[in-house]
Amino acid sequence: MPRRDTDPDFVESIARGLDVLKALDRPRMSLSDVAAATGLARPTARRILRTLEVLGYVRAADGSFALTPRVLELGIGYVQSLGLWELARPHLEALVARTHESSSMAQLDGSDIVYVARVAVPKLITLAVHIGTRFPAVPTSLGKVLLAGLEPDELEKTLAEPSRAPVVPRWQPERAELDQALREVRAQGWALTDEQLANGIRSVAAPVRDGSGRTVAAVNVTVHAAETPVSTLREEYLPMLLETAGRISADVALHDALPVSEAPAGPPTAP
User: Fold this and answer.
1) Distance CA 45, CA 178 (A)
2) What is the CATH number of the domain that holds 43?
3) 3-state secondary structure of 43
4) Number of other residues whose CB lies within 10 A of the CB of residue 266
5) 72-111, pLDDT tens digit by residue?
6) 123, 124, 136, 214: least CB-packed within 10 angstroms?
Protein backbone atom coordinates (compact mmCIF):
# COMPACT_ATOMS: atom_id res chain seq x y z
CA MET A 1 0.00 0.00 0.00
CA PRO A 2 1.54 3.39 -0.98
CA ARG A 3 1.95 6.18 1.55
CA ARG A 4 -1.27 8.20 1.80
CA ASP A 5 0.36 11.44 2.96
CA THR A 6 3.58 13.16 1.90
CA ASP A 7 3.98 14.98 5.23
CA PRO A 8 7.32 13.82 6.70
CA ASP A 9 5.75 13.78 10.16
CA PHE A 10 2.96 11.41 9.06
CA VAL A 11 3.47 7.96 10.66
CA GLU A 12 2.17 5.40 8.19
CA SER A 13 2.44 2.49 10.62
CA ILE A 14 0.03 4.19 13.05
CA ALA A 15 -2.40 4.87 10.21
CA ARG A 16 -2.26 1.21 9.19
CA GLY A 17 -2.89 0.11 12.77
CA LEU A 18 -6.00 2.29 12.90
CA ASP A 19 -7.11 0.86 9.55
CA VAL A 20 -6.94 -2.63 11.05
CA LEU A 21 -8.94 -1.59 14.11
CA LYS A 22 -11.66 -0.07 11.92
CA ALA A 23 -11.70 -3.15 9.67
CA LEU A 24 -12.52 -5.49 12.56
CA ASP A 25 -16.26 -4.83 12.33
CA ARG A 26 -17.41 -8.45 12.66
CA PRO A 27 -17.22 -10.85 15.63
CA ARG A 28 -14.56 -12.96 13.93
CA MET A 29 -12.30 -12.16 10.97
CA SER A 30 -9.48 -14.17 9.47
CA LEU A 31 -6.08 -12.75 8.56
CA SER A 32 -7.14 -12.86 4.90
CA ASP A 33 -10.34 -10.93 5.73
CA VAL A 34 -8.37 -8.19 7.50
CA ALA A 35 -5.77 -7.96 4.74
CA ALA A 36 -8.48 -7.68 2.09
CA ALA A 37 -10.47 -5.08 4.05
CA THR A 38 -7.43 -2.85 4.60
CA GLY A 39 -5.50 -3.44 1.40
CA LEU A 40 -2.49 -4.53 3.42
CA ALA A 41 -0.19 -7.42 2.60
CA ARG A 42 -0.85 -10.46 4.78
CA PRO A 43 2.54 -10.25 6.61
CA THR A 44 1.91 -6.57 7.41
CA ALA A 45 -1.62 -7.25 8.61
CA ARG A 46 -0.36 -10.16 10.73
CA ARG A 47 2.28 -8.00 12.44
CA ILE A 48 -0.24 -5.27 13.20
CA LEU A 49 -2.76 -7.76 14.56
CA ARG A 50 -0.09 -9.31 16.75
CA THR A 51 0.88 -5.86 18.09
CA LEU A 52 -2.76 -5.03 18.84
CA GLU A 53 -3.16 -8.40 20.53
CA VAL A 54 -0.18 -7.73 22.81
CA LEU A 55 -1.63 -4.30 23.67
CA GLY A 56 -4.97 -5.89 24.53
CA TYR A 57 -7.10 -4.39 21.76
CA VAL A 58 -7.47 -7.60 19.73
CA ARG A 59 -8.16 -11.19 20.73
CA ALA A 60 -6.87 -14.08 18.59
CA ALA A 61 -8.40 -17.56 18.66
CA ASP A 62 -8.59 -20.45 16.20
CA GLY A 63 -7.01 -18.46 13.42
CA SER A 64 -9.43 -15.54 13.63
CA PHE A 65 -9.36 -12.12 15.25
CA ALA A 66 -11.84 -9.94 17.14
CA LEU A 67 -11.82 -6.66 19.01
CA THR A 68 -11.78 -6.63 22.80
CA PRO A 69 -13.72 -4.22 25.03
CA ARG A 70 -10.48 -2.29 25.55
CA VAL A 71 -11.02 -0.48 22.24
CA LEU A 72 -13.78 1.48 23.99
CA GLU A 73 -11.02 3.32 25.87
CA LEU A 74 -10.02 5.00 22.61
CA GLY A 75 -13.39 6.67 22.16
CA ILE A 76 -14.51 7.15 25.72
CA GLY A 77 -11.46 9.31 26.43
CA TYR A 78 -12.77 11.84 23.92
CA VAL A 79 -16.22 11.86 25.49
CA GLN A 80 -14.83 12.12 29.00
CA SER A 81 -12.43 14.90 28.04
CA LEU A 82 -15.39 17.02 26.99
CA GLY A 83 -17.48 16.10 30.00
CA LEU A 84 -20.54 16.08 27.74
CA TRP A 85 -21.74 12.65 28.80
CA GLU A 86 -21.60 13.50 32.49
CA LEU A 87 -23.40 16.78 31.84
CA ALA A 88 -26.05 15.31 29.56
CA ARG A 89 -26.81 11.98 31.19
CA PRO A 90 -29.20 13.05 33.96
CA HIS A 91 -31.10 15.26 31.52
CA LEU A 92 -31.37 12.53 28.88
CA GLU A 93 -32.49 10.03 31.51
CA ALA A 94 -35.19 12.43 32.69
CA LEU A 95 -36.36 13.02 29.12
CA VAL A 96 -36.54 9.29 28.39
CA ALA A 97 -38.52 8.76 31.60
CA ARG A 98 -41.11 11.26 30.33
CA THR A 99 -41.31 10.17 26.67
CA HIS A 100 -40.51 6.45 26.99
CA GLU A 101 -38.48 6.89 23.80
CA SER A 102 -34.73 6.77 23.17
CA SER A 103 -32.68 9.96 23.33
CA SER A 104 -29.16 10.60 22.07
CA MET A 105 -26.50 13.28 21.73
CA ALA A 106 -24.21 13.61 18.73
CA GLN A 107 -21.47 15.81 17.32
CA LEU A 108 -20.13 16.38 13.84
CA ASP A 109 -17.11 14.52 12.50
CA GLY A 110 -16.62 15.73 8.97
CA SER A 111 -19.90 15.29 7.09
CA ASP A 112 -21.05 12.60 9.54
CA ILE A 113 -22.54 12.64 13.00
CA VAL A 114 -21.08 10.49 15.75
CA TYR A 115 -23.11 9.55 18.81
CA VAL A 116 -21.40 10.60 22.05
CA ALA A 117 -24.20 9.89 24.54
CA ARG A 118 -27.35 7.77 24.50
CA VAL A 119 -30.13 6.57 26.78
CA ALA A 120 -31.99 3.83 24.94
CA VAL A 121 -35.41 2.24 25.21
CA PRO A 122 -35.46 -1.33 23.80
CA LYS A 123 -37.33 -1.24 20.50
CA LEU A 124 -37.03 -2.94 17.15
CA ILE A 125 -35.78 -0.32 14.71
CA THR A 126 -34.03 -0.49 11.36
CA LEU A 127 -30.61 0.65 12.52
CA ALA A 128 -28.77 -0.18 15.74
CA VAL A 129 -27.34 2.84 17.56
CA HIS A 130 -24.75 3.05 20.32
CA ILE A 131 -22.03 5.44 21.42
CA GLY A 132 -19.62 5.76 18.51
CA THR A 133 -22.22 5.00 15.81
CA ARG A 134 -21.70 7.09 12.68
CA PHE A 135 -24.39 8.25 10.25
CA PRO A 136 -24.37 10.78 7.39
CA ALA A 137 -25.33 14.15 8.88
CA VAL A 138 -27.65 15.40 6.13
CA PRO A 139 -30.57 12.91 6.51
CA THR A 140 -30.62 12.95 10.33
CA SER A 141 -32.31 15.41 12.65
CA LEU A 142 -29.14 15.62 14.74
CA GLY A 143 -27.06 16.32 11.65
CA LYS A 144 -29.39 19.01 10.33
CA VAL A 145 -29.18 20.85 13.65
CA LEU A 146 -25.39 20.62 13.68
CA LEU A 147 -25.00 21.66 10.04
CA ALA A 148 -27.38 24.57 10.55
CA GLY A 149 -25.16 25.82 13.36
CA LEU A 150 -22.09 26.18 11.11
CA GLU A 151 -20.83 29.37 9.54
CA PRO A 152 -21.11 29.37 5.71
CA ASP A 153 -17.42 28.60 5.12
CA GLU A 154 -17.49 25.83 7.74
CA LEU A 155 -20.60 24.36 6.12
CA GLU A 156 -18.95 24.28 2.69
CA LYS A 157 -15.85 22.59 4.06
CA THR A 158 -17.91 20.07 6.03
CA LEU A 159 -20.17 19.07 3.16
CA ALA A 160 -17.15 18.67 0.88
CA GLU A 161 -15.84 15.82 3.05
CA PRO A 162 -16.93 12.33 1.99
CA SER A 163 -19.04 10.40 4.46
CA ARG A 164 -17.40 7.49 6.26
CA ALA A 165 -20.69 6.09 7.52
CA PRO A 166 -21.61 2.54 6.43
CA VAL A 167 -25.18 3.59 5.60
CA VAL A 168 -26.72 4.78 2.33
CA PRO A 169 -29.53 7.15 3.32
CA ARG A 170 -32.93 7.28 1.67
CA TRP A 171 -32.84 11.10 1.36
CA GLN A 172 -29.98 12.50 -0.71
CA PRO A 173 -31.06 16.04 -1.54
CA GLU A 174 -29.66 18.41 -4.12
CA ARG A 175 -27.80 21.33 -2.58
CA ALA A 176 -30.64 23.81 -3.07
CA GLU A 177 -33.06 21.52 -1.23
CA LEU A 178 -30.58 21.01 1.60
CA ASP A 179 -29.95 24.75 1.92
CA GLN A 180 -33.69 25.36 2.20
CA ALA A 181 -33.99 22.67 4.88
CA LEU A 182 -31.15 24.20 6.88
CA ARG A 183 -32.68 27.66 6.63
CA GLU A 184 -35.86 26.25 8.15
CA VAL A 185 -33.88 24.63 10.96
CA ARG A 186 -32.13 27.92 11.75
CA ALA A 187 -35.44 29.79 11.76
CA GLN A 188 -37.32 27.38 14.03
CA GLY A 189 -34.41 26.20 16.20
CA TRP A 190 -34.96 22.45 15.75
CA ALA A 191 -35.06 19.75 13.06
CA LEU A 192 -37.35 16.84 12.29
CA THR A 193 -36.72 13.89 9.99
CA ASP A 194 -39.32 11.40 8.82
CA GLU A 195 -37.70 8.17 7.52
CA GLN A 196 -35.05 10.15 5.62
CA LEU A 197 -32.18 8.06 6.99
CA ALA A 198 -33.91 4.67 6.90
CA ASN A 199 -37.36 3.12 6.92
CA GLY A 200 -39.20 3.27 10.22
CA ILE A 201 -37.09 5.97 11.90
CA ARG A 202 -38.47 9.37 12.87
CA SER A 203 -36.69 11.83 15.10
CA VAL A 204 -36.65 15.41 16.27
CA ALA A 205 -33.48 17.20 17.43
CA ALA A 206 -32.46 20.43 19.13
CA PRO A 207 -29.10 22.18 19.56
CA VAL A 208 -26.89 22.17 22.63
CA ARG A 209 -25.04 25.48 22.83
CA ASP A 210 -22.12 26.75 24.86
CA GLY A 211 -21.99 30.09 26.68
CA SER A 212 -21.18 31.96 23.48
CA GLY A 213 -24.22 30.54 21.69
CA ARG A 214 -22.20 28.22 19.48
CA THR A 215 -23.79 24.84 18.72
CA VAL A 216 -21.50 22.20 20.21
CA ALA A 217 -23.79 19.16 20.03
CA ALA A 218 -27.37 18.14 19.33
CA VAL A 219 -29.84 15.98 21.24
CA ASN A 220 -32.84 14.10 19.88
CA VAL A 221 -35.83 11.89 20.54
CA THR A 222 -36.15 8.92 18.20
CA VAL A 223 -39.36 6.98 17.58
CA HIS A 224 -40.58 4.10 15.45
CA ALA A 225 -42.64 5.46 12.57
CA ALA A 226 -45.20 2.68 12.83
CA GLU A 227 -45.90 3.54 16.48
CA THR A 228 -45.60 7.31 16.74
CA PRO A 229 -47.03 9.87 14.28
CA VAL A 230 -45.21 13.04 13.35
CA SER A 231 -47.83 15.06 15.22
CA THR A 232 -46.90 13.37 18.52
CA LEU A 233 -43.22 13.93 17.88
CA ARG A 234 -43.78 17.62 17.17
CA GLU A 235 -46.53 18.50 19.61
CA GLU A 236 -45.71 16.34 22.65
CA TYR A 237 -42.03 15.41 22.53
CA LEU A 238 -40.53 18.53 20.94
CA PRO A 239 -41.38 20.88 23.86
CA MET A 240 -39.80 18.40 26.30
CA LEU A 241 -36.74 18.09 24.06
CA LEU A 242 -36.27 21.86 23.77
CA GLU A 243 -36.49 22.14 27.54
CA THR A 244 -33.90 19.37 27.93
CA ALA A 245 -31.55 20.92 25.37
CA GLY A 246 -31.81 24.24 27.20
CA ARG A 247 -30.89 22.65 30.50
CA ILE A 248 -27.92 20.82 29.01
CA SER A 249 -26.80 24.06 27.33
CA ALA A 250 -26.97 25.88 30.66
CA ASP A 251 -24.82 23.19 32.26
CA VAL A 252 -22.32 23.34 29.39
CA ALA A 253 -22.06 27.12 29.70
CA LEU A 254 -21.57 26.86 33.46
CA HIS A 255 -18.99 24.11 33.05
CA ASP A 256 -17.03 26.16 30.51
CA ALA A 257 -17.10 29.20 32.80
CA LEU A 258 -15.52 27.35 35.71
CA PRO A 259 -11.83 28.08 36.26
CA VAL A 260 -9.49 25.34 35.10
CA SER A 261 -7.90 23.65 38.09
CA GLU A 262 -4.14 23.44 37.97
CA ALA A 263 -2.03 20.64 39.34
CA PRO A 264 -0.33 21.54 42.63
CA ALA A 265 3.21 22.72 42.30
CA GLY A 266 5.90 20.17 43.13
CA PRO A 267 8.42 20.54 45.96
CA PRO A 268 10.91 23.34 45.48
CA THR A 269 14.14 22.30 43.87
CA ALA A 270 17.37 22.67 45.72
CA PRO A 271 19.37 25.73 44.78
Assistant:
1) 41
2) 1.10.10.10
3) helix
4) 6
5) 777 666 655 667 778 888 999 999 999 999 999 999 999 9
6) 124
